[in-house]
Amino acid sequence: MEPQVIEGDGVRLRPYRDSDLADIAAGCADPLTQRFLGGLPHPYTEADARWWLTEGDPATWARGGAAYAIADPESDRLLGAVGLDRVVALRDQAEIGYWVAPWARGRGVASAATRALTAHALASGFVRLELLTQPENAASQRVALAAGYRHEGVRRAASRHADGDRRDLLAWVRLAGDPDGPAPRPLPDLPADGLGDGVVRLRMVGPDDVDVMYRLHSLPEVVANRVPPEPPGRADIARRCQLAESNWLLGTGADLLVVDAASGEVGGGLALRYDEPVTGQAMFGASMLPEWRGRGLLTRGVRLLAGWAFDTAGIARLWAGTRPENVSAQWVLEKVGFRPEGVQRGRLPGPDGTRVDSAIYGMLPEDLL
User: Fold this and answer.
1) Could you tell me the pTM of the whole model?
2) Mean pLDDT across the chain
């Protein structure tokens, strides 16, 4: 590939200029950029930016890759960077990467630049492009999906950071033969204000929900259905909250909170696990804090999520499992439309090496009450 100007949707990809030096330094010194690009010098100074302009950029092109400044088409100010590196000529493969300056975020700059360079690279002879993101970097995963990249797996401990820590990376891939447009998603986003019926509202779990999630998942009746049936560690719950959006984007599951519409307080939680995408089946879980029980809020939440799963996500069948003695959970399920389907003997591991039964409930779209 040769350096040239590439016009995108609201962005321009162009070669770097000496006048970009201050903006490169400011963008790469930004805490968010530093957090997700662990290989950057820290602190990042204008001397580092000058090295990039004089040595890093030319070396990338010499390796068969590409390095572009993302610029505003009107002002020509640098908005970020996008490029190709780690070229494997034998496979016609390269890795695409990007960063966006703080003054340009929230405008779709990364998605537009990634789409533009992806199209140019595939038209130039590349057959396979990889995009790697940290699991907690949901914003970057949205960029990958918007540019048509599909999740391929996990690169364990593939990222080395300045502190010596090694972290996993999610691999997203775009092939030359893939259709244009965004990649398909098994679980679409909720409406911007969540799901609601005027009494309760459902919203996605986020990094700030550790306290309530830890309390919910430490309840004895919830712990009894964990595998193994042991109380969770707070660090495990914090990680679950941190990765909730990523899991949603991957389509593996959705963690939500049941919020009282009047007070805004969290009363319970719901979980949807897309355990059989090939058959359109997902598993359902629900829990409520003791002081919120008996008000019908959990029933409303289950009904809202089940309706969204059938009507918006296109899921064909929901199922849930409870302990046979958990009559209150079964009552909630049946009130919404789940039907008892039998008992799976010894399905779950119990305490001290025992096995416990699980009462199975299922629901089809026409069963929803």
Assistant:
1) 0.91
2) 94
